Amino acid sequence: MIGQEPHRAIGVADLSNGRIVQRIPFDKGTIEQMASSPDGKTLYCAAAGNIWAVSVSGEIHQVVAGGFVTVEPGGQSLVVELRGSPYTKLIRVPLNGGAQQDIPLPGPLRLGYVIDNLGIRNGLLVAPASGPTWYWPPAIFDLGTGKSKRIPIELVIDFHHMAWTPDGKVIGGAQYWRSNMWKFTQQSH
C-alpha cells in the first residue's frame, strides 16, 4: 500500500529497480491481506470483511465475505478463511462461478491466526493452529481429509504467517514473547 489516507492505493513495483510502475486505487476499506493470481493479473484483497478481486486495470468486484484468502495452485479457486463461532472455517470459492464449498477441518487442531498467500501446496495448507495450547503452533492441514498435524519445533511461540517455498519447504513468521515480572510495594507516608 502506498500513499496517505484517504488516498492510499495498491502500488505495483518493478523488483529489478524498486520503482513503482503502477498505482491501483482501492476504496473498499483498509486492506488486511493480498494474494495474487498465478498470472499476476488479479489481486485478491481482504478488506472490510470481504474478499475483493482487483484487476491490474483497476476494476474491483466483491468475490465473497471473508477475512483472509489464498489462491490455490493452478489459480482455479480461492480458499477463504471465515472467522466465526465456535471455530474459524475455510471455504473453497471456484473462480469459474461454481458453488462455494465448505472445507471440513475435523481436527485434532483448528485454524489459528491467518491463512496466507502461497499457503497451499499439493492439497496441504500450512497455517498457525489453535489448541490444545495457548500458542499458535505451526501446522499442516490436509484440505482433502481435513486432518491436521503440528510441525515439531523446539520453541513455544506464536506463529502468525506461514507459506510454502518453491522447493517445498515451509517458511513462517513468529512472534516470540518476552516479559518481566515487577513487584510493587506501597510506601507509607
Question: Largest sheet at a glance?
Answer: 5 strands, antiparallel
The H-and-E topology, N to C, reads as: EEEEEEEEEEEEEEEEE
| Computed structural class | mainly beta
Q: In angstroms, what is the radius of gyration?
A: 19 Å
Overview of this structure, please?
The protein has strands spanning 9-13, 20-25, 31-36, 42-47, 50-55, 60-65, 68-71, 77-82, 89-94, 101-103, 110-111, 120-121, 124-130, 138-142, 148-150, 158-164, 170-175. It is mostly beta strands and 189 residues long. The mean pLDDT is 89. It starts with 8 loop residues before the first strand and ends in a 14-residue tail after the last strand. The strands form 5 sheets. Strands 11, 12, 13, 14 and 15 form a 5-stranded antiparallel β-sheet that branches. Strands 3-4-5-6 form a 4-stranded antiparallel β-sheet, with no helix packed on it. Helices cover 0% and strands 46% of the residues. It is built from no helices and 17 strands. The radius of gyration is 19 Å and the shape is globular. A hairpin with a 5-residue loop joins strand 16 and strand 17. The protein has a domain at 104-176.
How is the topology of this model organized?
Layout (H helix, E strand, L loop, with lengths): L8 E5 L6 E6 L5 E6 L5 E6 L2 E6 L4 E6 L2 E4 L5 E6 L6 E6 L6 E3 L6 E2 L8 E2 L2 E7 L7 E5 L5 E3 L7 E7 L5 E6 L14
Antiparallel strand pairs: 1-2, 3-4, 4-5, 5-6, 7-8, 8-9, 9-10, 11-13, 12-13, 13-14, 14-15, 16-17
